[in-house]
Every structure is written in C-alpha cells, then in structure tokens.
Amino acid sequence: MKLAVFAHCAVDTITIGENNYEQIGGSACYCGLTAREFKFDVDLYTKCGNDFPIQYLSDNKINLINSESAKNTTKFAISITGADRTLKLENQCDPIEYSNTKADGHLVSPIFHEITNETLKKIKDDSNFLFVDPQGFLREKDSENNVFLQKKDLDLSNVNAIKVNPEEAQQLVTGTHDEMMVALQKRGVEHVLLTNKTEVSLLVKDKVYSITLPNKEIHDTTGIGDIFCAAFCCTMLKEKDYLWALCFAGGAAQAALDSKNVGLQKIPRKGVIQNNASYFYNLVKFRDL
Hints:
Helix content: 25-40%
Distance between the termini: 34 Å
CATH architecture: 3-Layer(aba) Sandwich
CATH topology: UDP-N-acetylmuramoyl-L-alanine:D-glutamate ligase
Low-confidence stretches: none
Strand order of the largest sheet: 5-4-1-8-9-12-13-14-15-16
Number of helices: 9
Shape: globular
Strand content: 25-35%
Radius of gyration: 17 Å
Number of strands: 16
Structural class: alpha/beta
C-alpha cells in the first residue's frame, strides 16, 4: 500500500534544558519514516535545500517528489520544557507543488504555510482517504519570528480524519473539548482525534473513544504528533478499523516517548508499536455524545 505525505522537511535545533541538538526533522520525515515502519510505500511531496541530507530519506526508500529548492530548508529553533515547547522560525522553504499520485491515502501535515488552499483542494479531489494535521495552516510568526497559533477558516469538507490539540481546535472552532470535536465533525470530518497531553480522544458518529497514555517522564516531544498521525493513517488504510487505528496511534506515540531518544531516532519499531496497541485495545473507554 502507498501513503502520500505532504509536508516540509526541517532542520531543527532542539534545546532541552542545557543541551542543544541539531536534528533533521519536520513532519515529512517523522510521518514518512513511520509509514515505512508499517511497510507502506511513501511518496513524499516536500521541498528542501542543499543543506538537507536527502540521501537519508532515499536510503529509507522514501520516494521524493519534486523536492529540490534553491532556498534553504525550513528551520526551527525548538525549546522544550516537559510537555511544552516553543518554536522560532529561522528559515522558510518554497511551497509544495502538487502532482497526481495513485496513493491509498494522503497525509497532509504542514509545518509552516507550505501548503496553499489551492493545493489542499487538489489533494482532496484526488484522495480516497485524507488525514489532515492542521498545525502548519494555523501557525503565524511575530516580528521576532516566534511562532504562535492564529484563527483560520480551513475548508474541512471531504477530510476523513483530523488530529488537533485543544489550542489548535480553538483556532478552527469554539466550545468545550466535546463541543469542538462535534463542531469539527459538522464541518465534514469523519474521524476527529483530540490529543490533550496524555489523553487521546476519537469522535466517530456519536461516540467518543478514549485512551490514556501512561504518564512517564517526557524528554523530546518533537515529532510525536507526526508519528501518531502516520500510525493512525497506516492502520486505518490496512485494517479499516478506527479502534485499532486509535490504539496503534497511541501505541506508536507511547513507544516513541518511552525510547527517550531525540529527533528521528525516537521513531519506534513496528513490533513495539503492536505490543502497545494490544495493551491499549483492552483499555479503550467509550461514551455517547
């Protein structure tokens, strides 16, 4: 099976306490490499400059589509304190161009404005299963390049699944957590995932399914959401079962956190994800809305 991923690669400087780590990343890498763990073929629609080690992705059998840019790669400075992080945008690469792909699913996960509304519309017209992580649509920067979230009217019709945290959801809709999930559903989304630190909820029709990730010491949270999204996507496409998809997504995020690794080294192996997924499957809580 094939997953098409639309996202920028990034070069990140990650600061945790006193330590600085120079890492390649961006949702392009985290989503693409996680999908490879699930044995998916990956078409990666991205843009990066000569400062990005593209060979690393090719070595992992990720198929790069029209990725070369004269500009340098999108770059963030990320400061992490516990589960919270702040971002500074240090460079922005070219927007992503769309071309037709025969993929089973499309995962759209921008990091900063690389996907236009026009490109999103083209992806929708082409897609049988579309997962959107809207973070990069909602991000803006101030005069000092600090990244913050801003309200945006995003067309969510024909979106099969979305993942938001409460702060992101508030930029798209209003209300309590439950009300925001329902409002996103009303705007056309079939599966609404809300991640609130260790609480993960999934709204399908009129039921909310939830799991709680064991709250252990958190190290580097960069890319955890991307690993989660790719695991959900791949499981949905393979198993056609949203409960297993929820459990695999949670299982992948938990395995990545448990690794205590920084950057792309935290992407977990399929076996570990599977063990965690089975554990969560027996603990899913559900309620009617």
